[in-house]
Amino acid sequence: MAITALGAVCMAVAGNGLGGPYLNAALQMVGMSALCWLLSSDSTTHKIKLAWLFATLWLVGCVWWLYIALNHYGGLPAIITVAALFLLCGGLALYYAGALWVFIKYSKQLTSWQKHLCFAACWTFAELARAQWWTGFPWAAIGYAHVDGVLSYAAPWTGVYGLCFLAAGLSSALAQVDWKSENRDSKIATCLAVVACCLPAVREVNTSGPVLSVKLLQANISQDTKFRTARLPSLQWYLQGLEKSQAEVTVMPETALPYFKHELPDGYWQTLADVTQTQQKYAIVGIPTQDPHKGYGNSAIGLGGSHEVQYDKHHLVPFGEFTPDALKWFTRMMSIDFGDFNRGAVDQAPFKWKDHQLAVTICYEDLFGEELAVRFNHPDRAPTLFVNLSNIAWFGDTTVVKQHIDIARMRSLEFKRPTVRATNSGGTAIIDAQGKVQQQLQSFTQGELQGNVNSPYQDITFFATWAGRWGLKPLWLLCGGLMLWTVFVGRQRSEKSESVK
Predict the structure, then answer these.
(1) Which residue from 44, 62, 356, 495 has the highest number of Cβ atoms inside 10 Å of its Cβ?
(2) Which CATH superfamily is domain 211-465 in?
(3) Contact, 94 vs 47, CB < 8 A?
(4) What is the phi-psi region of residue 140: left when phi exceeds 0, alpha when psi lies from -120 to 50, beta otherwise?
(5) What are phi and psi of 96, to 5 degrees?
(6) 26: closest CA among 142, 113, 140?
(7) Options 10, 118, 197, 254, the catalytic residue
(8) Does the active-site annotation cover 352?
(9) Cα distances (angstroms) measured from residue 481 to each of 14, 40, 487
């Protein structure tokens, strides 16, 4: 039990990004190696329960900040909030316990390298299930712990779940080193391989390609007052930020304007449009929208050029932006008004400004790289820059800010495209195409971040090519196939062993 808890703590520290670029990858591998060692040990009983407990503790340690949204802003009593958090994480942990059952039951008869493949397949299968089933909640997948490490070189080829597979396989190799063996070369080679993959990646800054000047606005408006007393003052602050901007593109965060367009003060929207027209610049504005045919939307509107363009958020947040009818009893317990937003299309066209194609994402949906890959299916409108509008003030000044920046960095690595993030309270940053944070505003301060971003790569990565066409199906097939192969080989060798006896 102690090893299970210690391993889960190591994984949670890495999942929160607290180990820094030099330790996150190592902590992830050490923590997972502890689990793999327990599951491979003949002396360990109740292995399925241990796998479930490990995954539950790890997930709670990575998304603990949900407590703030549910309790502080949602008004849920503390005991119900804690219960809801453990129920969510315990439910997600069933994916891991179920997938690892194959490893526990059928891997005993496999050779060492076959066990490593089996463990990697089982773990990644569970990560894929968590990412896509029931709308998906892929926060803190283990591949993100390697955003600074050597394994990240594979991101443009495999995506983050390919990194999950590689990291899990290496963790299994570390766990199953036979220290009593006289084969020193094998032990040394395994340890060196693991250590090498924990080293920080070296990436040179590439300053070639078209340059775009951007200004990112962070108003730092409290979630308590955003839709109440701070509504009018925030409008003036954002308008002044746009008027003073010397950048080609100015970005306001998610729901920066907490009104529908028809509710804005007279002339306000026209003033925004006039500023972009007269000063020859572009603005991307986060605003809720209302359409008589489509319903409500969490949207971003591009102002500038000859006409307005609108992006509607595609991947909505469960319970925050939509609630299944069967679970609306839960949201009725909270003091937050929850809406059911309209879902935008997955392949909406980018906003075009001069030679740049700006692919907008709103907050949570930049976790889904396979959905962003769809935007590269048409080379003539392939994004040159990702623009993320976010508001994570719901979760306080916590590790969620660092986690979300690392997620955005991984998207830049997967597609070799820079990312700019405009947030309400924290995580406002400029990230280059190599996944490096070039500039960042201090969290929970009001400010403006101005800088230049360049797009040195025009090619489409291998990950964007296959994920854009088939989503994550190739990884599902790989992991599912390896798990079925494990069952077949494990049964066959067990029967052969029994017949010999």
Answers:
(1) 62
(2) Carbon-nitrogen hydrolase (3.60.110.10)
(3) no
(4) left
(5) -70, -45
(6) 142
(7) 254
(8) no
(9) 29, 21, 10
Classified as helix, coil or strand, 296 is: strand
User: Residues 118, 197, 198, 363: which is the catalytic one?
Assistant: 363
Measured CA to CA, the distance from residue 243 to residue 38 in angstroms comes to 60
Cβ pair 60, 390 in contact under 8 A: no
Closest to 172 measured CA to CA, from 284, 37, 24: 37
- Dihedral Cα 298, 300, 301, 302, nearest 10 deg: -170
What is the sign of the dihedral through the CA atoms of 137, 138, 139 and 140?
Answer: positive
Structure confidence at residue 438 (pLDDT): 95
Catalytic option among 313, 370, 414, 416? 313
Q: Where in the chain is the domain with CATH 3.60.110.10?
A: 211-465
- When mean pLDDT is compared across 279-283, 291-295, 480-484, 486-490, the lowest value belongs to 291-295
Q: What is the pLDDT of residues 308-332, one digit of tens each?
A: 999 999 988 876 666 655 555 455 5
354 is catalytic: no
Report d(CA 328, CA 339) in Å as an integer.
11
> Is the Cα dihedral 156, 160, 161, 164 positive or negative?
positive
HSE-CB at 98 with a 13 A cutoff on CA atoms is 13
For residues 311 and 344, give the distance between their C-alpha atoms in angstroms, rounded to a whole number: 7
- Structural contact between residues 449 and 406, judged by C-beta atoms closer than 8 angstroms: no
Examine the residue annotation and report whether 164 is marked as an active-site residue of this protein: no
pLDDT for 487 equals 93
Read off the pTM: 0.93
Query: Please, how many CA atoms are within 13 Å of residue 398, restricted to the half-sphere of its CB?
Result: 17
- Tokens at residue 20, please? 């820094």
Q: Which residues pair with 388 in a beta bridge?
A: 361, 421
HEC states along 372-396? Answer: HHHHHCCHHHCCCEEEEEECCHHHC
List residues bridging with 282 in a β-sheet. 249
